[in-house]
Amino acid sequence: MTTLITKYFPIINEEQRRQFAALYDLYADWNAKINVVSRKDFDQLYLRHILHSLAIAKVCQFEAGARVLDVGCGGGFPSVPLAIMFPETKFISADSIGKKITVVKGVCEGAGIKNIDARNVRVEQIDEKFDYIVSRAVTEMPTFVKWIWSKIERGQRGTLPNGILYLKGGDLAEELAATKMQWQQYNISDFFEEDFFETKKVVYTAK
User: Is the pLDDT of residue 57 over 90?
Assistant: First the structure.
């Protein structure tokens, strides 16, 4: 299972390999109780959820101590894989649905992931500042920006200036133009060769 991760991230250490390997059984156990990953694609967990989340790590490496908020994290994507990849970075995984946060907490406990604070909260209720905000297709971009723009602190706590890193698919031109902001689009197929990533992107804007 983890060969897909080591194929693209060969330098991860033994602890990271162990944590990535632990995710399959942990998500399988939790998914049987609380369905957070579609049952029809659970066999593709490493491709469609874990590796997809890690596309963000190909675009931006977070520094130790950087603060990253995952909005609408669901079962913990992209924040759980990113927290394993960047163990010195502080992640908050936020979702308004309590049972999803129960899964994130259970997975983190089982895998020994210590750098995630999982919160059952609506993003509007969070009043802290962050260096980066990550998410995976939770809503239209103009709405998303309205929710979170004031929560990003200017600066640079990684290989890109602080900002939004968002996983999305398809033709985004109109949606991004509606925000009246400058965006960079990174094709995930430039990083990962699997067909699943053909139309998928990481979109980024700096604060």
Answer: yes
| pLDDT per position as a tens digit, 110-138 | 999 999 999 999 999 999 999 999 999 77
According to the 3-state scheme, what is the secondary structure of the chain? CCHHHHHHCCCCCHHHHHHHHHHHHHHHHHHHHCCCCCHHHHHHHHHHHHHHHHHHHHHCCECCCCEEEEECCCCCCCHHHHHHHCCCCEEEEEECCHHHHHHHHHHHHHHCCCCEEEEECCHHHCCCCECEEEEECCCCHHHHHHHHHHHECCCCCECCCCEEEEEEECCCHHHHHCCCCCCEEEEHHHCCCCHHHCCEEEEEEEC
Domains, the chain, ordered by start? 3-206 (3.40.50.150)
User: Is residue 45 scored above 90 in pLDDT?
Assistant: yes
Average the pLDDT over each of 3-7, 30-34, 69-73, 169-173 and give the range with the smallest value: 169-173
